TrEMBL record:
It comes from the Bacteria. The lineage of its organism: Bacteria, Bacillati, Actinomycetota, Actinomycetes, Mycobacteriales. Signal peptide: none annotated. This is Molybdenum cofactor biosynthesis protein. Keywords: Molybdenum cofactor biosynthesis.
Amino acid sequence: MLDAEEVQADAAARAESLRGEREVLLRALVVVVDDRAVHGEDSTGIGPLVCELLEEGQFHVDATVAVPGDEIEIRNALNTAVIGGVDLVVSVGGVGVKSRDVTPEATEPLLDRRLRGIEEALRSSGLSAGATDGGLSRGMAGVSGQTVVVNLADSRAAVRDGMATLIPLSHYIIDQITEF
């Protein structure tokens, strides 16, 4: 049986070989769930960090959207990304246990299929890297139509580690769901 690191390495190798065949960049959208960021007070720089990591992972980021910790606002932002046809939407924040942490509740109704393996890989890698919020995240991952939707915790450590885990896996999943 393969461990998590071997699965990630295998997915990364497959994604790299497929990426060589692909000439167009994949499209992504970032949703930052943070009441302060909505009012322009985001001092964490999480949105730009996610964009930078996505671009390094061969994604074109269409936009970064900030929404408050409100289930309807989050669902609308995620749904807009799916309807807009992006390949990957990454939400950051709102996956803890505080009363305003409702990103998983907003995400679940949009998903056609959950990707529990990605959810667990993100939590496992978060714990391994010492990103406690990433390891204890209630974040979800799944497919909605032709879009991969993933929730990440909002610390810099959780984002860096989560994106390192997510990018090769997302390339593989996107290739799977766009094969006809």
